[in-house]
Amino acid sequence: MRNTRMFQSKDISFTTNNILWKPSTNTKWLSKDEVNFESEFYHSQFKPLFHLLRLLGVFPVEIPKTGTPRFCILSPAVAYSVCLYLLLMVSFYCNLQERMMALHDSRNFDYKIYNVLHVSISGSCLVVPLIMALDLKKLVLYTGEWMQYQILFRKVTGQLLVLSVRRRCICYAVLSCLGGTATIFFYFYEPRVPLLALPSYMFSGILAEIMVSYWMITFHSLALAGSKYATCFKSKLKQGTVSAEMIGEYRILWMRLSELVSGAGVATETLLALHVSILLFGLVMCLYGLLFGISDGHSSRNVTMTVIGVVGLLFVAPFYCICSQADYIMTTVETKVQKELHHITTWCRRQDIQQEVNNFLGTISMNPPVISVLGFTNINRRLFASFASAMLTYLIVLLQMKMGEAESDKT
User: Fold this and answer.
1) Whole-angstrom Cα distance, residue 55 to residue 20?
2) Which helix (H) or strand (E) holds 66?
3) Helix (H, G, I), strand (E, B) or coil at 63
4) What are the Cα distances from residue 167, in Å, to 164, 209, 226, 264, 381?
5) Residue 72: band (very low, low, confident or very high) from pLDDT cuts 50, 70, 90
6) Are 133 and 197 in contact (CB under 8 A)?
7) For a disulfide at 267, which of 54, 99, 142, 183, Cβ 3.0-4.6 Å?
8) Measuring CA to CA, how many Å separate 311 from each of 131, 182, 240, 378?
């Protein structure tokens, strides 16, 4: 069941001035980590990815130096996004014309699959920004929820929740740009790709890679937050300072962590569902194209099919990492906390502590850290296994259709 409680606030922006923590102006007696705490906020660490998404026109928000991103419908960023979208429509139309002519001229099943794959790749430049617009406000809210959790984590545990993913965001942003611009390969090896169609290919390639990077780093950050929570809770119990108040504070912190994990799916739920569907469709087409390109010689079209197939296979690794991180949060972290709570019940006989422990266990069972995709399925390793099974099933269906076409040609 999806958890949408975190989005009940009417505001879609948060600032560091109206929440619990404010950095001290006297930094003489503070450690380096405490001075740089504001730079460790989720929105500060993810700024390289947010700036790139803003440049692509799919994240039209204001990104201030301090505070979370803010969205305003009447802003230059929104106007820029609309203009860029109109240019992409022209680019996609040029490619669509060529592909429709190719589909009309060719009766070969393999070439039809090939042209449909091209239309799908370039067409995502129009679909993804529209889907992203539906999730925009929830994504802005989610950055504020991360900041509130980091502040509450410091208040409860006395430690900083250091994400340290800014460099990773920069590296992924650079790699996404390089991978997207590599789609210029189509212009040199595919005779039916017009020059005006290249922007749609480049935009689609960069956007697909940057969104996968965002999900990978976000899920990594959630796994880090869950692991840090379990470690702090265990070390607090080892100190021997167990009290009903302390367990109650960690119970509230668990509820916020569970909402944060569930919010990762809610914040980009529509786009995440679209990405899983497109990935399944694209991988089936890419694998079929890879087999077709390898088996049918070395013409420019077959080289293109082989390259697309290899690139499609490379997208499987990030998807597996996303499923693994979500599975770690849902099983390993939850199991660690439950194990420590059951251990308390074996030696502590105080009624108030026993009551808080039971409340904590009930909270864990009622608020599991689950990442859902539109409520249809949960992201975990079982999803990856189901995904691989469906991919092989559809690939076999395509191969059977190819064999049936070959037999009809002989007849």
Assistant:
1) 33
2) none
3) coil
4) 7, 17, 21, 21, 27
5) confident
6) no
7) 142
8) 24, 11, 53, 26
Separation between Cα atoms, residue 28 and residue 16, nearest integer Å: 21
Nearest-angstrom CA–CA distance, 326 and 216: 10
Residue 70's DSSP bridge partners are 62
Rounded CA separation 18/21 (Å): 8
Q: For tokens 């692991």, name the residue.
A: 227
What's the pLDDT tens digit per position in 380-408?
888 888 888 888 888 888 777 766 665 56
Encoded amino acid at 48, one letter: P
Per residue in 227-243, pLDDT (tens digit) is 898 888 888 888 777 78
CA atoms within 13 A on the CB side of 192: 17
Which of the two residues, 146 and 243, has the higher pLDDT score? 146
Q: For the stretch 195-226, what's the b/e string if a residue is b when 16 or more beta carbons lie within 10 angstroms of its beta carbon? A: eebbbbbbbbbbbbbbbbbbbbbbbbbbbbbb
Give Cα separations from 68 to 16, 336, 388 (angstroms).
Answer: 8, 32, 38
Distance set, CA 71 to CA 9, 60, 132, 270 (Å) = 15, 7, 13, 19
Q: What one-character-per-residue DSSP string does 309-372 give? A: HHHHHHTHHHHHHHHHHHHIIIIIIHHHHHHHHHHHHHH---HHHHHHHHHHHHHHHHS----E
The amino acid at residue 3 is: N
Which residues lie below 8 Å from residue 84, measured CB to CB, with a gap of 6+? Answer: 56, 57
As a whole number of Å, the end-to-end CA separation of the chain is: 54
Name the residue type at position 32: K
